[in-house]
């Protein structure tokens, strides 16, 4: 009985250690290496000294379509004009909804007048799982020191209706602007909404 209790206590301790090591704002963002639509490799460390936005995306998702009615492009333009690195991340696995080639990704970017720094691929899902990306869109802001400052939804109304964009609290935009101003976002964590990431 004592041995069983010791095993249970040890398991609980290991579980608590694992939970404390989970992704969290205020801690260093997980490092990653990805390849973009043009075949260039990017590592988070390459962007030291710059603010970074990660946007999980899937062009076939109605929630993504909602925000690419103009909202996402405006945010990309606003952020990249301030030297923010904006990576649109596609974690859709081959054969799954949203998976595209580099050429198709570039075609989508051009046809939508999108202006991310790069569209990057995470076919294995390693990066998405490291960031616990659940939906498309799912938004993250990393500051110049490589610290994760925001993770969550793009805004407060979980619908696929374009009309709701102007009615919603723009969680992501507010968080990004706070980080650019050297402040801590509030809230720093919100619930994302959209289609599930197709790992």
From TrEMBL:
Residues 1-21 form the signal peptide. It comes from the Bacteria. Keywords: Signal. This is Redoxin domain-containing protein. SUPFAM superfamilies: Thioredoxin-like. Gene3D superfamilies: Glutaredoxin (3.40.30.10). It comes from Rheinheimera maricola. Pfam families: AhpC-TSA (PF00578). InterPro entries: AhpC/TSA (IPR000866), PRX-like1 (IPR047262), Thioredoxin-like_sf (IPR036249), Thioredoxin_domain (IPR013766). PROSITE patterns: THIOREDOXIN_2 (PS51352). The keyword Signal applies. Residues 23-174 form the Thioredoxin domain. The keyword DNA-binding does not apply. PANTHER family: OS07G0260300 PROTEIN, THIOREDOXIN-DEPENDENT PEROXIREDOXIN.
